[in-house]
Amino acid sequence: MNSTQTRALEITFAALLGVAVLAPPSGPALAQSGSTNAECRSNPHLARARELYDELQFDDAASTLQRAIEYANNCRYDLAEIYRLKAFVDAVNQERERCHRDFEIFLALSPDYVMPDDVPPKIRSCYEDAKSVAPSRRTLGISHDAPKDSQHSTPVSLRVEVTDPLRLVDQVRLYFRRDGVKIFTVVSARADDSVSVVIPGLALPPSETGYQMEYIVRAVDRWGGVLAEEGSPKSPLTFNVVAGGAGPGIAGEPLFWVLLGAGVIGLGVGVFFIAQGDDGTIPVTFFEKQGTGLGP
Question: What does pTM read for this prediction?
Answer without folding.
Answer: 0.73
